[in-house]
Every structure is written in C-alpha cells, then in structure tokens.
C-alpha cells in the first residue's frame, strides 16, 4: 500500500507526465516531502514560506476533504489515502 | 467553464460555475465545487477547454491577476468586457470577446471566429478536426 498523489496537468512536468505518483508519510507535510524526494520541484509548487504553508491558490484534498479545514499540512494521512492537488481557477 | 474531450481542443460541455469570491473584481471557484468539477471531467475523460470571465470596467485583456493565477496551460482563457453595457439585454453594439493562451506568465492572443459547426473549420490547423 501507499498514499497516492493525483497530479494536475500543470505539475506533470515534475512527474514525467504521470497523472498520479505514490509516496508515504504520517502527515501531509511528510508525504509532500517524500514525494518531492522522488519528483524534485513538486513541493515548492504546493507549499511556500517559512514556516511552510500551502500556497493560497493551490487546493489540496485528502480523501475529498479540503485540508484547509482539517489541519493543513499537519493533516494526518495513512496508507490507501488519496491526495488530490488542484490549482485554483481564479482571476480578476 | 467549458469542458471538452481530452486532447480534442473542442469546447462542447458548458459548466456554469459560481463565483465564490462574490466580487465584481475577483473570481474564484469554491474549493468543493472545484473538486466536483474536476472529478466529473475525469470520469467523462474531459479537460477544461475554455475558462472565461468578464471584466466589468476594463478591456477584455487578461489582468495582472489573471496572468499570475492562470494555471491551466491547455485552456483558452476567454474574456468578455461589459464596460460598454454588453451585459444588458437591450445592448446591440459590438461585444469585446477575446481569447488567450496564458502559459508561465506569457499571454498570446488567438483568433476567435463564430461558426455554425466545426465542419466549417475543416482543413484549418486545429487539433480538434481529427
């Protein structure tokens, strides 16, 4: 088992075109670090700042729950979970 | 948004979306709506083909915010300006309706032509004709 990351079109340059990649971790932060180890560059497109936070215009969901409502990067995750990253559709 | 079959470059399914920002100067899809939309497109083997919005007081050209936040490299970003009242039912003048690619902060305008059917575009360079 593993945790699956569904990658949006704009970030597939970091995954060799793959729509989904796997990783591990007990929290979303650990998982993103793990995936970034195998696909360098992904992390900085999802996370920013110090302390690290999710980018304002990137949405991340664990099992269909927006992580902004479940603890952000500290959201707990486990084997079999599905993490979806979607860029915001926004402008002005 | 208007979705279409993956790789077709054809805008065939109109999907009305709510502006969760509830603002005349900024738009953003609600995060739950966004997830539902993308799951639905995934199930139908679709992708975003046209992402459109209006500018109520300025020209139909991507704003700095539009350029910064554009994150769909495969989409045509369509802008309509209603600064001359084009949103009013009685309006009968020309409508500013323009389309762009926005990739890595670079804006490239593209021609818009209204046709009755895609068959009228046969022979043109268009991924959608295959």
Q: Can you give a write-up of this model?
A:
The complex is a heterodimer of chains A (92) and B (130). Helices cover 17% and strands 29% of the residues of chain A. Chain A is built from two helices and eight strands; from the N terminus they run E-E-H-H-E-E-E-E-E-E. Chain A has a five-stranded mixed β-sheet, covered by helices on one side. In chain A, strands 3-4 form a two-stranded antiparallel sheet. Chain A has a single domain (3-87), classed as Ubiquitin-like (UB roll), CATH 3.10.20.30. Chain A is α+β, with helices and mostly antiparallel strands and 92 residues long. Chain A is globular, with a radius of gyration of 12 Å. In chain A, strand 5 and strand 6 (65-66) form a beta hairpin. In chain B, strands 2-1-4-5-6-7 form a six-stranded mixed β-sheet, with helices on one face. Chain B has a single domain, classed as 3-Layer(aba) Sandwich (Cytidine Deaminase, domain 2). Chain B contains two helices and seven strands; from the N terminus they run βββαβαβββ. Chain B starts with a strand and ends in a 20-residue tail after the last strand. In chain B, helix 2 links the parallel strand 4 and strand 5. The mean pLDDT of chain B is 93. Chain B has 130 residues and is of the alpha+beta class. Chain B is globular, with a radius of gyration of 15 Å.
Record the strand order, biggest sheet of chain A.
2-1-7-5-6
Give the strand order of the largest sheet of chain B, numbering strands 1, 2, ... along the chain: 2-1-4-5-6-7
Cα-atom radius of gyration of chain A: 12 Å
The major sheet of chain A is characterized as: 5 strands, mixed
What is the beta-strand fraction of chain B? 25-35%
* Gap between N and C termini of chain A: 42 Å
Radius of gyration of chain B: 15 Å
Task: Report the sheet with the most strands of chain B, covering strand number, pairing sense and barrel closure.
Answer: 6 strands, mixed
Shape summary of chain B: globular
Q: Order of SSEs of chain B, N→C?
A: EEEHEHEEE
**Number of DSSP-assigned strands of chain B:** 7
Count the domains of chain B.
Answer: 1
Q: What is the subunit organization of this protein?
A: heterodimer
The number of helical elements of chain B comes to 2
């Amino acid at each position: 088992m593993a945790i699956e990351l569904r990658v949006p079109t704009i970030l597939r340059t970091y995954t060799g075109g793959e729509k989904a990649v796997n990783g591990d971790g007990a929290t979303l932060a650990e998982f993103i670090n793990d995936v970034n180890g195998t696909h360098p560059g992904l992390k900085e497109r999802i996370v920013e700042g110090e302390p690290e936070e999710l980018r304002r215009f990137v949405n991340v969901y664990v099992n269909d729950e927006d992580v902004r409502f479940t603890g952000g990067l500290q959201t707990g995750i486990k084997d079999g979970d599905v993490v979806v990253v979607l860029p915001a559709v926004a402008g002005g | 948004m208007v979705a279409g079959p993956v790789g077709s470059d054809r805008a065939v399914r109109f999907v009305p979306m709510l502006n969760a920002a509830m603002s005349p100067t900024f738009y953003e899809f609600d995060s739950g709506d966004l997830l539902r939309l993308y799951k639905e497109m995934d199930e139908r083997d679709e992708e975003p083909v046209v992402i459109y919005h209006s500018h109520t007081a300025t020209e139909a050209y991507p704003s700095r915010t539009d350029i910064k936040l554009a994150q769909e490299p495969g989409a045509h970003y369509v802008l309509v300006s209603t600064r001359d009242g084009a949103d009013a039912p009685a309006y009968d003048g020309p409508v500013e309706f323009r389309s762009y690619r926005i990739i890595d902060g670079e804006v490239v305008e593209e021609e818009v032509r209204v046709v009755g059917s895609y068959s009228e575009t046969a022979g043109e360079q268009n991924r959608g004709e295959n």
